[in-house]
Each structure stands twice: as structure tokens, then as C-alpha cells.
């Protein structure tokens, strides 16, 4: 669902903890809004790095917003150093999320690695559908604690076999069994899931993960290829019809 009326706020950190190696959950105080699949731009520094960091919505409560993010560079390293009471700048909600009205029937929610981050808020908002969760990780499992508390089918794969199925998440499900697949994760994994859906004619929506500069569609720095030309991931996405994407 498209939302152009984003807001800029300076808010205080409630909690910022490491939930797995290199994976952090940041809770920020305030009144927030957003659709599943949308994201916020975050900044907790004055000068370098120049760019804000785009982080998908992990959850929204009555008085807070949560972000699940991976430590990958200087920006996320600075975010990981935030402690309770410190201030962080947030801008959002941004982008197009999952269209909840399109989510019907038997649904597979498929994630890989940090792609699990937007799925918490998504499954909370899916109504009147049978939802099955498939989550893949290299080794350590994270981001499923709250999802596991819901009355949903959850299957996990790890590449090292330490938890659940040993192998890849794409080995856990057959898209032919579903009316719709919702996916987020590494590009190579999403490409595989999209091809699996194409082969059997199952609808699929994916949330693209791209480096973003402005977050509002002005700089064209996060374009992706589609059957109808280049699209801006931050503005036209990050959620796209998977069958429209070209890898």
C-alpha cells in the first residue's frame, strides 16, 4: 500500500540488544504507523556516514516501533552502540508494503537470514488465511520468537543443520501447495523461490533488499530491473510482484 505522507522524528531508545551474533533488535519510543513491508530511515550520528540506514518495520506497538537489523557496516555499527535513553532520528514510513487485501487463501511466508525481519509484523496483520512460515538461516536462528507464539506452522532450516532441516529453506516447501507466496531474503534465494513459483503458476510477492541513499525515490540509487523497465526499490517497492522482477 502506497504511503507518501512520511514523518521525521527524533525519538528515544527503549532497548537495543544483540539477539544473535551480529543481529540486533532496536526498540524506539513513540507513536508510529506503517504497513507490513514498509521501512524507516534511521540515523544516530551527526557527520559520517552521510547516508541514513533503511530498516524494515519488525513490529509496531501502541507506544513503540521495533527494528531487527544486521551489523553490516559503519552505519549499523553506530546503531548497535545505541543504549537506552539515547536519541535516534527516524523518517518514515516509506515505500510500498504488502497489500493485505491481496493476501488470501493458503499462504507461504518464506524468509532467508535477516529477511525474517519484516515477516513478524506481516504475519500479525494477515487475516482469514492459512499461513505457513518457512525460515532459513546459516546457523543461529533469530526473529521467530514472537511468531512461534502464534498458532502458525513454522519450519526452519539451517545450512549447518544445527536447527531444523539441514539445507536451504527452498527445500522445505512446494509452492504448488499454496495460493500465494510472500518472500524476503538474499537475492539468490528470492530468485530461486520466484522460479519455483513460475514453474507451477503460484502468485508471489517479494520484498527487495537494496542499498538506499534517499529512501524517497529522488536519487535513483536503488533501481531494480522489471519487465516494464527500471523501478525504484524505495519508492515503487520494496515489495514487488515477483513475476515482474528480472534478475
What report would you give on this structure?
It is a single chain. The chain is built from four helices and 16 strands. It is mainly beta and 247 residues long. It has two domains: 88 residues, Translation factors (Elongation Factor Tu (Ef-tu), domain 3); 145 residues, Rossmann fold, CATH 3.40.50. It has a seven-stranded antiparallel β-sheet, with helices on one face. The longest helix is centred in the last third of the chain and has 14 residues. It is globular, with a radius of gyration of 17 Å. Keywords: 2Fe-2S, Electron transport, FAD, Flavoprotein, Iron, Iron-sulfur, Metal-binding, Pyrimidine biosynthesis, Transport. It comes from Clostridium sulfidigenes.
Q: How many DSSP E strands?
A: 16
Number of helices: 4
Cα-to-Cα separation, first versus last residue:
24 Å
**What proportion strand?**
35-45%
- Return the CATH architecture of the largest domain: 3-Layer(aba) Sandwich
Spans of at least 5 consecutive residues whose pLDDT stays below 50 are none
| Global geometry | globular
Query: What helical percentage do the residues reach?
Result: 10-25%
- Multimeric status of the protein: single chain
**What is the CATH topology descriptor of the largest domain?**
Rossmann fold
